Hints:
By secondary structure, the protein is mainly alpha-helical. The chain has 14 helices and 12 strands.
Amino acid sequence: MAEMNRKYRIDTEENRAFLKELTEDLLSFGHRFPSPEGAAYYLGDDGTPWTDRPRETFVTCRMAHSYSIGSFLGHPGSEALIDDALKGIRGVLKDTEHGGWYPGVNADGTPLPNKLCYAHAFVILAACSALIAGRDGAQELLEDALEAYDRFFWNEEEGMAYDTWNTEFTILDDYRGLNANMHTVEAFLAAADCAGREEYRVRAGRIIDRVLGWASANNWRIPEHFSKDWVPDLDCNKDRPADPFKPYGATPGHGLEWSRLITQWAVSTYPEDEAKRAPYIDAAQNLFDRAVEDAWDADGAPGIVYTTDWEGKPVVHDRMHWVLAEGINTAATLYRVTGDEKYAGQYAQFMEYLDAKVVDHVNGSWFHQMDRENHVIGTVWPGKNDLYHALQATLIPYYRPGISIALAVKEDAR
């Protein structure tokens, strides 16, 4: 049994081999995403496209990012798949009349309403990854994406991003949210790393400082939803607690994800200054520890619950694959940066659970949603639309923690 456990322990050959196998499985699983216009079809349980569903911008961008990484790893067909996704991002998903990007298009090609910060952050990420993959048009796409983001979503005075406009960019919704700002941090770090735009690393730090203020005042459970004046709305969606983008309460998976992004920002911003880096690493550890204490194995079965109330009691007991992916990423990242063996131990627990419950060993990819007994369900995330979280979780544990994963993989491949 001890020998078997090596498969789950960081820095063993067995664990490296396990992750490499998962990486290839994920990249192979996603090959059928492109629609004729390039926008990503939603993939079903066995990777078959669900052509009757909307083709969403954030999914298409995630595919461009994922296959950019695939191209650095030498995965066959990656370059063509990046170009398919870019065709969709530059084409049917782009609003040539009002600017920016639609959230997606329906099966009949009509655009989905509104303009979302969340989607625009992923356009930046996709463009950055495609840029370092050397794809035609990526530089122009990045310039367009940054210009649209800066014009419509970034609030320089507040150091935070708006969330939602109407389609015409004439009416700004009063809602403010941290999910879009979290992916903005990811995108801004990519812009700094992949395009040398260091002003975006500074902006990422401004967002992080505000988030840490709210988190530290709330026992390291991060408020997710806010008024237009950035007053936390702790009861938002209490009647719809399992909302896929605006769930009620604390989202431990976001605590894990913020922990990793904060660590990446701190290591990249203060590479030689441990004193300045230390408060951010401490905060990242507090976020990770709170999420794991509240949500891991919290209800008598393994897994990380989706949401908790503000006292840390589980509300939605479902397990989402992206939450586990971020747990894997962050445990490994904190182990790399702090050397604390407890993170290596948590990583091994996450790995064992991944192999036993979350990897679909029959059809490929990872089950996206399971109930509290770890039975596969699809009430929030049916099918398997997303490679991005899972793919990154097979790579981040073995790459430099202070650099965006696409560039880290490319530099290592050199």
